[in-house]
Amino acid sequence: MTDSSETKTEKKRYFEPAPTDIDVENFKKVVQTRRSVRKFTKKTIPAEVLDDCLDLALLAPNSSNLQPWTFYVVQNLAKKKQLVKACLSQLAAKTASELIVCVARTDRIDEMAKMNISEFPFPEAPAAVQKYYKFIPYNYKTGYFNALGNFKKVAFKVARTLDKQLPVTAFNPADAKLWASKTTALACENLVLALRAYGFDSCMMEGFDEPMVNKILNLNDQQYPVMVIAAGERAVDGVFFPQYRFDRELFIQKV
């Protein structure tokens, strides 16, 4: 005889089978042929292709589904000209069909937490989910004058003397910025791989004048440009050098 409470729990569980028809060789080809392209042709990226690539970027893994990012597709000609200059007039920026500024954000944590409850994919978010999203913003916020960050620092120090296992948290605004930037970078990788899968290429540029980019986009002090992605069709001479990497044993450790 089956326990009724167990049956009830089973009915509420969600199952999503892993797809089995994925072509790993095609995936490897996308990853292996993704290059930092420094020169593009004049061919434009179709709007529907760019939109699909951006949608795939938004599917990147991110902490607690807080999605701390905004992607600015700069199409206004005056702003685009300014952005090219802010990107130090790099050839990739000057010849790109599209320039996309990838911005990490710590100013919408509360808003995103509330949306995770209101837009939960079931008719009503379970009580545990609602409780989680009322708590989780405090993990990344630091408060006015860093009051919350300092409190967490003391609390965590005490907890560790009691041999407690604790999650990564933000003790100061720099920690929160790092968290949002790491997550945004994951979405950036999705974006450039999606572009490659469609036959287009990219250059992920960290060489830019950050205050100038902030001014162009009117960003606040909790919005941080992580990179500018130049995108378009690869020119014949768009890749300057062969790809190479150092010995894998320098980077992969099995412990």
Short synopsis of the structure:
The chain is an alpha+beta fold. Helix content is 45%, strand content 11%.
Key phrases:
alpha+beta, 4-stranded antiparallel β-sheet, 11% strand
Question: What would you say this structure looks like, in words?
Answer:
This protein has 255 residues and is α+β, with helices and mostly antiparallel strands. It has a single domain, classed as NADH Oxidase. The protein contains eleven helices and four strands, in the order αααβααβαααααβαβ. The protein has a four-stranded antiparallel sheet with strand order 1-2-4-3, sandwiched between helices. Helix 4 packs antiparallel against helix 11.
Strand order of the largest sheet: 1-2-4-3
For CATH, the homologous superfamily is named as NADH Oxidase
Write the CATH fold name: NADH Oxidase
| Corresponding CATH architecture | 3-Layer(aba) Sandwich
Q: State the oligomer.
A: single chain
As residue ranges, the low-confidence spans are none
| Helix content range | 40-55%
How many individual domains?
1
The SSE order reads HHHEHHEHHHHHEHE
Main beta sheet: strand number and arrangement? 4 strands, antiparallel
Mind telling me the CATH class? Alpha Beta
Task: Give the secondary structure arrangement, pairings included.
Layout: H1 4-12, H2 24-33, H3 47-57, E1 69-74, H4 77-86, H5 91-95, E2 98-105, H6 109-118, H7 127-135, H8 137-140, H9 147-161, H10 173-197, E3 201-205, H11 210-217, E4 223-232
Antiparallel strand pairs: 1-2, 2-4, 3-4
